Amino acid sequence: QAQKVHERSPKGLLTIYARSGFGGSWNSLQRKPRQLVTVFLPDGAEGLLTDMQRFLGGESWYRSRGIPYRRGYLFMGPPGGGKTSAAEALAGELGLDLHVLNLGGVTSDMNLEQLIISIEAQKPTMLLLEDVDAGTPARDATKDKRPFSLGTLLNMLDGIMAKENLILIMTTNHPETLDPALLRPGRVDVKVEFGMAT
């Protein structure tokens, strides 16, 4: 019965997963993906699709060298510059599922671990971390009241618990406030600055 339902489902739809309530699960919805040609990309961002396609076609290169099979991007710029729209359009263009996580809703270290671990990544998928400047804890836990630690976030992005088969996109309005550890290669491989339309 499940197979018949799947075969009847519309093709060419983007599946978007969002965090469900206060638990560690994901809810999904499907919709027609936004076309990449409708997104105003800034100078220097035209190669994003090619870069992601090269990554998706290079799994054997990563595996043969013992390098974790994931690639990270940082989309920087003021609100309304097209960062989230570009991520959605790229996921649709590449035929990837899109998981969207706002760190402001994470309730604990365990909750964050649960959410990342439960991402289905048997095939390549995309994880969008929205507004990491607003949701990332400070290095000094005594100055930060967030319910999870920077160490846990770093470990889930690029540590022993990190997912593979993953394209990670982080968006930020204020890149200068981000901890340097979050931006090192392996966590962020490509940075793209999105400005307002000229």
How is this fold's topology laid out?
Layout: H1 2-8, E1 14-20, E2 25-31, H2 48-56, H3 59-64, E3 70-76, H4 83-94, E4 98-102, H5 109-117, E5 125-130, H6 132-135, H7 150-158, E6 166-172, E7 190-193
Parallel strand pairs: 1-4, 3-6, 3-7, 4-5, 5-6
Antiparallel strand pairs: 1-2
Overall description:
With 198 residues, the chain is an alpha/beta fold. The chain has helices spanning 2-8, 48-56, 59-64, 83-94, 109-117, 132-135, 150-158; strands at residues 14-20, 25-31, 70-76, 98-102, 125-130, 166-172, 190-193. The chain is built from seven helices and seven strands; from the N terminus they run H-E-E-H-H-E-H-E-H-E-H-H-E-E. Strands 2-1-4-5-6-3-7 form a seven-stranded mixed beta sheet. The chain is globular and about 50 Å long. The chain starts with a helix and ends in a 5-residue tail after the last strand. The mean pLDDT is 89.
Rg estimate, integer Å: 17 Å
Could you say which structural class the secondary elements and strand pairing correspond to?
alpha/beta
The secondary-structure element order is HEEHHEHEHEHHEE
Strand tally is: 7
| Strand residue content | 15-25%
User: On the 0-100 scale, what is the average pLDDT?
Assistant: 89
Helical run tally? 7
Query: Largest sheet, described in full?
Result: 7 strands, mixed
| Molecular shape | globular
End-to-end distance: 52 Å
> Unreliable segments (pLDDT under 50, ≥5 consecutive)?
none
Strand order of the largest sheet: 2-1-4-5-6-3-7
Helix content: 25-40%
